[in-house]
User: Fold histidine kinase from Jatrophihabitans cynanchi.
Amino acid sequence: MSKPSRRRLRLRARGWSLRRRVVVGFGAFTALFAVLMTATVISLVDFVRKGNEVVNRWEPAAAATQDLFADLVNQETGVRGFVLSMNRTFLQPFEQYSDKQAVDERRLHELVGRYPVLDANLATLQAVAKQWRDETAIPLISLVNSHEPSASSLVDDPDGKTRFDLVRKAAATLSSAVNGVSRTALHDRSNALRALLIALSVSVLLFVAVGLLAWRGLHRWVLAPVEGLALQARDVAEGTGERRIVPTGPPEFIDLGGDVETMRRRIAEELARVEQTSEDLARSNADLEQFAYVASHDLSEPLRKVANFCQLLERQYGEQLDDRAREYIAFAVDGAKRMQALIADLLALSRVGRSTDAFVPVDTNLALRRAMSNLDEKIVEAGGGVGHSDLPIVMGDPTLLVSLFENLVGNAIKYRSEQPPLVVVTAVSNRQTHTWTFAVKDNGIGIEPQYADRVFAIFQRLHLRGEYAGTGIGLALCRRIVEFHGGRIWLDTSATSGATFRFTLPERAS
Assistant:
């Protein structure tokens, strides 16, 4: 079985995983949300449909019913005025509202034609209106037009009055029926609006409830376990390395806590090994310091005796020695002195960084002048000079920086050309890295670019010992000093004449 499969089985055995909880919760919310949205949409559609029914059908139907009855009343008033006054002007309302009656009847029929009761009431109104028109209104108009004297007496004819009362009654019945249906439609629209508001309210409450549950679940299943794990990790980072990490929460976080606990144990084991290595290194450093003391004192003393006694032998028995013997003595003295110089340089190289606890501000102008003072005899002998710009104050070890300038300037004096040596020291600030870049430039014999890295290796010499004296440790010591100060040193291969060494040192702390 693969590792992921075993992990899934382990998660199922310990309860629901965070992924499963999220998927199930999201699925339940989605299903409930879909149901509520469907109900909301249905309620909204029903409300819009019933609202449109009220606005587009029943309100116009009620208005059309009133208009139709007003048309009939205006016709009856026009006929009555015409009969009583014998003036045809009064017939204009009758003719005008007769045409309008036809329009209002068609409009009302379009609105209520699908409802049998209302359509029957409309038909009854049309029938009694036609009966009143055919049997009362038209005959009266004909009598007046024929100048019949008895026409005016027929205005209050009981039959005609009865016929128009039937019109009023039919119109009232139709209006009552239309208003009843309209009130029912308004009630239905109110119910649809109530259902829509309920659906929206339930949706809002669902969102709020889901938000609260999601926050509680997030806090309980994610934030609290992560915060607890982070707190334990901080305790370990602050030094409580022996504290065991106990995770809580869903299986994923328990696994994560187990991985962190495994990492903590491994780090603790590594730290124990590092501490043991540090103790071994401290003992080794102590042994090296003891060796350095022996090398500087106990080894140097026999070398001085060898050199002194060889020189004494030459002075005491010089007349008895031939040229070959004197040459052998000179070789022995030179070897002893070179061994002394080599031991001194190795001792200086090994001491870099051991005698300094903290850096202090160092005026590199003063450090360079101290180095020039130490090299004064060599500078005068070579007939050279050393110039410099205004150098900065840097953070470092004063003694080591003097040694750095002494070795670089001393090399420039040593490897001079036929002309008198001239050394120039400058410094440029680099604001981005908060460092100073120094340059030590000379007019000597120079160094080939292919040797740019080799010159900083210990015991590496580019010339024979007979040509230029030295132990081959000077530039290695310079690199050790610069790196100890957090900088770097290199040979500028772009220099067209002489040699230019550049190195960086940190700015003075503000």
